[in-house]
Design a protein that fits this description.
With 60 residues, the chain is mainly α. It has a domain of 36 residues. The chain is elongated, with a radius of gyration of 18 Å. The model has no long low-confidence stretch (mean pLDDT 83).
Length: 60
């Protein structure tokens, strides 16, 4: 696995965390940078919709 480490500049332990979906130490920007350095591209789409109103006195 040394080739990905060399291409991305991140440690083997970080690759292990990514493989195990332990992503607490990673920002979205950092993950996208790793993917780009490996020769892939990322497309992120965000859809915003209005939140439903919360009625007072009604438990959620």
């Amino acid at each position: 696995m040394r080739a990905p480490q060399t291409r991305t500049g991140i440690a083997a332990a970080d690759f292990s965390r990514i493989r195990n979906a332990d992503l607490g130490r990673f920002t979205v920007d950092r993950l996208m940078s790793v993917i780009n350095r490996l020769g892939s591209r990322v497309e992120v789409k965000i859809k915003v919709r209005r939140a439903e109103p919360v009625e007072e006195g009604v438990p959620t």
